[in-house]
Amino acid sequence: MENTQSSEDERIIGLEMKISYLEDFVRQLQEVVLEQGASLERLVAENRHIKTRLADLAGQLEGDIPNRRPPHY
After folding, report:
1. What tens digit of pLDDT does each residue of 7-54 get?
2. What Rg do the C-alpha atoms of the chain give, in angstroms?
3. What's the rounded Cα separation, in Å, for the pair 68 and 30?
4. What is the dihedral of CA 57, 59, 63, 66, to 10 degrees?
5. Distance between CA 15 and CA 28 in Å, rounded?
6. pTM to 2 decimals?
7. DSSP 69
8. In Å, how far are 27, 39, 59 from 47, measured between CA atoms?
């Protein structure tokens, strides 16, 4: 009877340790996901800014570039 109880205690302790490691792993994953989300938001904002700036520059240059076919056509 005592051997069975000891075996069950060891099994429970093993399960508790696994749960503890899993909880820590999930916490670390959550931190990584939050960091990646923040990085993604920054990159999207930067991309939006670059697109706007490029459109502005293209609009400024339209008057300087003649709208005709190049000589090789």
Report:
1. 999 999 999 999 999 999 999 999 999 999 999 999 999 999 999 999
2. 31
3. 55
4. 90
5. 20
6. 0.62
7. -
8. 30, 12, 18
